[in-house]
Amino acid sequence: MTLPLPTYFADFLQDIRPTKAQRAEMIDGYSRLKERLQSDAQLKTGFVSMFLQGSYKRRTAVRPKDGKKADVDLIVVTRMKESEFTPAEAMACFRPFLEKYYHDKYRQQGRSFGIVMSTVEMDLVITAAPVEAEAGVYSAFAKSEDVLQIEEDESQPIVKTDSNGNPQWKSEPLRIPDRDLGAWQDTHPLVQLSWTSQKNARCSGHFVNVVKALKWWRLVHAGALPDRPKSYPLEHLIGDCCPDGISSVAEGVVRTLERFTQSYALHAANTHAPYAPDRGVDQNVMARISGDDFAKFHAQVAAAAKKARQAFEAPDAQTAAPLWRELFGDKFPRAPEPGRGSPPQGNFTPHQGGPGMVGSGRFA
């Protein structure tokens, strides 16, 4: 027997996605930066391609909270040879451009330039020249992936694939300047994108929404959590722990939190952050996270896993919704009072049957 239930998670996810206005601001900021780079007399001849990267492109971005700004990343593949430019020299090439267009609005970060505008933040990521055979791959990819065509439907492929679900291109890693190490390091943004796209397909389109839900959990409980892991390192760990074949976002949240708790219990007990190689390259995305911070984070995940399991197995909406709200805050809808049709807030949507139906005795 199945029970028709309200689309609580659908309403919750709608309320934590970037708004239409925020998406427009990200597109405007990205497009303006790209156009300025492509028209800059000193730089434009030195570019192979430019393309969007980051959580917006992977469809794992959540709505900014507590005065934060939406952010977007632009990868710039240059013709600069690693043998001819140190990381510092490569980044210095972009300073006149940044001074011209973003004076007092940019800062140099470990591996990129951060540009802070009134409504959006952008990361400008510079890479060294790929080998000649790879230049065409990155140029073709940039032309095929238009930021303005990003789908709102998270179940659709994040990157273009062949009939077997594999990306329509193959590429080698890129090299980015690491200011702190004073060396060029591997990165593979296209593998990050294709891995996320394939993982999402294996999770019936639910994976990116599991990521969004758990990113939001982290924002809601920021005061009780250490500063790290967050952003991409957090997303990476969620990817490692989210099982394939999940049938709902609720199931994905519960099982991801539980697997995280189990998989990293020994690391937490020894106050040691796990080694987590980035997709496609042997770079530890957890390198900047201390053992103490990881142990504190693990303890909060373990508590959240128990709460999520209680909510998932609750017999009715009145029992489950308050538990989910403890995890996700007031963006998660309230349950209607027993015997009443709708809750006091307007974002509740009565479920009409279909994929959102779950087994009797489970509220998700």
UniProtKB/TrEMBL annotation:
Residue ranges annotated as compositionally biased, kind Gly residues, are 353-364
Q: Which Gene3D superfamilies match?
A: Beta Polymerase, domain 2 (3.30.460.10)
Q: What is this protein called?
A: Nucleotidyltransferase
Under InterPro entries, the record lists: NT_sf
Top-rank lineage group of the source organism: Bacteria
Q: Where is this region: Disordered?
A: 330-364
Q: Which Pfam families match?
A: SMODS (PF18144)
Question: Which organism does this record belong to?
Answer: Hyalangium minutum
Task: Kindly give the SUPFAM superfamilies that the UniProt entry links to this protein.
Answer: Nucleotidyltransferase
